[in-house]
Write the structure tokens for this entry.
Amino acid sequence: MLPSVRRDDVHTCPHHGASPVTGPCCPTVLIGNQPAARKGDSALCLDTTPDPIVDGCPTVLIGNQPAARLAERCAHGGVVTGGFARVLIGHPPVDADGRVIPIPPECTFLKDFGHKATGRRLGRLRDQYDLSPPTQVWEEVPDDTSVTAFDAREVTIRGHKVTIHEPVYGPPPDKWLPTADSVAKGLATLSDEQLQALDRVFIVPHPCTVGRRNTVADYSGGTIRYFPRNEPHPQSDIDWALQHESGHAFSLDVAWAKDPGAKDAWQKAMDADRRSVSEYGDTNLLEDFAEFMIVFSSTRGTPCEASARALFPHRYREMDRLFPRGVVERDVSAANETY
């Protein structure tokens, strides 16, 4: 759902700057006491040339024209940047010809991914792995001043090696942490592209000391840190967290490091989709990519891939470019799990 647009709401032209939508708009439909704008209604650029709105909502017609919403494209290449937030108009998935694509009931979780998805379908990607015996070490937690006794174990997945540090003395009182084996299982859901930038995972026996105190996990410079939780969490939740953090690893240290234009391409894909992946993904570009990493891994090659492509066509197309082999289903026993 997007804010509706009316006469006098602002549009921004890349050539002429900001100016209002002037009409004609629909005089018989008022939104906030202003005539409603539709596809075909124009803004008047500063050089006095009209700049028509070229998009609209195909399922909501006002005066027989698709209703205009915030971020609709205009003919000069700009967008509508103002809208009426108290009246929201639908933003349905459409195909290349503008026809509405129905989303099956089992795929509607994609419309509220951050709250409705479970991560269980990620288990279908789990590969075999080898986990070495533990070696006790005293290590400083990265980006932290604490030195802790860890059992260091190396997991090998298709030749990729990641060292997992599990605290010898376990989680703090009344808290929960995953085991090295459950982290290894989560890492085994990752593709070769996601694994290539990962070196270490620290299961940290205290809350994050920098930034948000309720941080579940974070990533920096080849290392994932996983922090204590209040309650035990299933393997699917660990899979989810590692998919997210591996999205940071891949975007920051592989895709965008090798091709700075790839970061701009992702921003353009976000803008063109005009749809949020999750509330957390709305934080910034980095979190949007990491959240969509989970969407891509959860849906690629499944019955809900078509729905994900319809809802997020530009992001999905960009992921196809970044992951030309897609993802590989290796555990058929999890192929029918809940998304």
Notes: The chain is about 25% helix and 25% strand. Residues 121 and 339 are 5 Å apart (CA to CA). The mean pLDDT is 93. The chain has two domains: 2-90, 123-322.
